[in-house]
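Most newcomers find our protein records easier to grasp once they have seen one. Sequence and backbone structure share a record, each on its own labelled line. Nothing more is needed to start thinking about how sequence determines fold. As an example, a complete record with its sequence and its structure tokens follows.
=====
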Amino acid sequence: MSDVLTWLAEPLHYAFMVRGLLAALIVGIVCPVLGAYVVLRGMAFFGDALAHIILPGVVIAFLLGWPLGIGALITGVLAALGIGALSQHKEIKEDTAMGVIFAGAFALGIALLSTQRSYAVDLSHILFGNLLGVSAGDLWLMGGLAVVVVALVFAFYKEFLVLSFDPVLAVTLRLPVSFLRNLLLVLIAVVIVASLQAVGVTLVLAMLVTPAASAHLLTRRLPGMMMLGATLGAVGAVVGLYLSYYGNVASGPAIVLTETLLFVLVLLFGPRRGLLWRRRAAGL
């Protein structure tokens, strides 16, 4: 027992590991809460596109010496609203609008970043995160953004619920559909910004979707899906961080791989909806 406690406590002797653990927990909890709507509404591509669209904002902030989160937040919110406005055009579908903005913005970010001598190193940190480099200021920013997102999700819980399950009913009830939709897009952008330091541009989609998808296999009720997703996200974040410490691998990919493993386990062994459970129920 003492060996286990020593194994668990050893990484916490370092301040950067404690900050990394807190950041991982913030991301692991808040991403699946909003990710439940992403999964239910089939918005995974939007999350991926938006994560890449914020790259030029991050690069411009880096070049100007600003905090990266500020540039990411401004770009993410503007991009979310821009996609929402462009997709209202009858001749342009939402996925087309996302694809156009995604490709152009990501190319712009790479072009700007390639002008720097430290191009490869800086790109690696932006794309894959630097969880162990989280500062106290980064933690406050992540925590503040997470609180805002969770508060707005619960404040508009009923409206988002109707919009996700029955958009026609939302119109019938005269809910402000455009406002709610744009708000949801902005919240996704804010969550991506909050997760940027932890897992980077390329892996943030996994934190949004994977724990929520695992929870979706275990329950069909939205509150349960949010709670289970947050639990799985937190567990995966902590386990992944410990694996990265003792296995000497990058923390972001380690966390995402742990979340993916949890999804596979739920897919195979989950009650009622797991593949092996169904085979057993069918008598095979």
The mean pLDDT is 84. The chain is about 80% helix and 0% strand.
